[in-house]
Amino acid sequence: METTTMKPPSILLAALRQDRGGQILLALLAAALVLVPLTNLVVPEGSALHLSTYSVTLFGKYLCYALLAIAVDLVWGYCGILSLGHTAFFALGGYAVGMYLMRQIGTRGVYGDPILPDFMVFLNWKTLPWFWQGMNHFPVALIMVVLVPGLLALIFGWLAFRSRVTGVYLSIITQALTFALLLAFFRNEMGFGGNNGLTDFKELLGFDLQAPGMRIALFVTTVLALAGAYLACRYIVASRFGRVLQAIRDAEGRTRFIGYKVESYKLWIWVFSAMLAGIAGALYVPQVGIINPSEFAPINSIEVVIWVAVGGRGTLYGAVAGAVLVNYAKTYFTAAAPEVWLYALGALFVLATLFLPRGVVGLMRRAAA
After folding, report:
1. pLDDT exceeding 90 applies to what percent of the chain?
2. Based on the structure, what is the number of domains in the chain?
3. pLDDT single digits (tens) 289-332
4. Which terminal Cβ of the chain has fewer Cβ within 10 Å, N or C?
């Protein structure tokens, strides 16, 4: 498919026409936009068709993870950058929204201080730290959701890619990055709630966070964000830029030899992916009601890689499928047999690597052929 003379909408439409999996994904998301609010708000609670608010929140969380998985698949599946630290960007986006939500508590907190969050009063802080200034304004929080992860990714990527750090060495460095942030955010003096993190949120934009209508609004926003992210990523990988990314993945040395600035391409997609992860974290926090340093844990980033591998690396929609399937299994097993979940997760990754190198999507393609 020639893309050099095509306009962006034409490139995207042409890519979607050849993307059966993407069509199915978008159709399912469109159906969810209609069915979930209908079954939760309209269908009576006593009906077998009623969807509980708990389930709405659970599905919303799965879709936040799916957005994070797309961000990882974009850099791993199409550019060959195996990131073991994307949950750092996810958590930073979550903390940005968490700070806004904490400022909305006001006098309803345990200590009733209209300015300082409860944990700062408990730690005997006298003034609000400079980096909390302005976080009581929603637009400022939204800017921080993408600015902070993007800026961190820009600095980290510029240092790593210009030094031509690749392969397993880059993966290890990304894991070290998220572990360093984990240790930093655990400290009370950092001003982010220490080990307990940020929680006890009351409202968002003046609306009760626990109200069923707000839960539906958050779910709908997450669905739209996931669909938008998928379309944006599909356009990127179908464009000439995406072809260069795949050339870098398959033969970085040759791509550099013929004149492409490999480091610039990798840096751009790395920063964009980090911003997507930050958006995923921002949508996640108001739905689960807490953000703490455990979100930085390296094991979480490894889990994301497992989602992508199980679903199908280099497909985008496979990453969504893997995130939803693995997290549904996690929800089931952690309730039914919590002591075996980690063993099951490890076995799933090994089996997917050995017998399903293209993931569930590849298996379905072979079955349909």
Report:
1. 64
2. 1
3. 999 999 999 889 989 999 999 998 899 999 999 999 999 988 88
4. C
**Paired tokens of 18:** 């050849």
Residue in this structure with the two tokens 């709908």, named with its chain if needed: 220
Mean pLDDT of 7-26: 86
Q: Are strands 207-208 and 198-199 parallel, antiparallel or unpaired?
A: unpaired
pLDDT (tens digit per residue) in 21-67: 899 999 999 999 999 999 999 998 888 889 999 999 999 999 999 99
Q: Is residue 2 part of a domain?
A: no
Pairwise CA distance, residues 60 & 287, whole Å: 7
Tell me if 301 is assigned to some domain. yes
- Coil, strand, or helix at residue 185? helix
**Residue 69 to residue 173: CA distance in whole angstroms:** 20
Q: 106 burial class (0-12, 13-18, 19+ CB within 10 angstroms)?
A: middle
Beta strands 207-208 and 203-204 are antiparallel
- Helix H or strand E encompassing 332: helix 317-336
CA neighbor of 311 nearest in space, from 323, 322, 327: 322
Cα 327 from Cα 341, distance rounded (Å)? 11
User: At residue 4, does pLDDT exceed 70?
Assistant: no
The one-letter amino acid at 140? V
| 1 within domain boundaries | no
Sequence-ordered alpha helix ranges (H) in 187-261: 212-238, 240-250, 252-257
Q: Residues, the chain, total? A: 369
Q: Is residue 235 part of a domain?
A: yes
What is the Cα–Cα distance from 258 to 250, expressed in whole angstroms?
Answer: 14
- Residue 350's domain spans which residues? 8-368
Please check whether residue 153 is in contact with residue 170, taking contact to mean a CB–CB distance below 8 angstroms.
no
User: Would you tell me how many other CB atoms lie within 10 Å of the CB of residue 164?
Assistant: 12
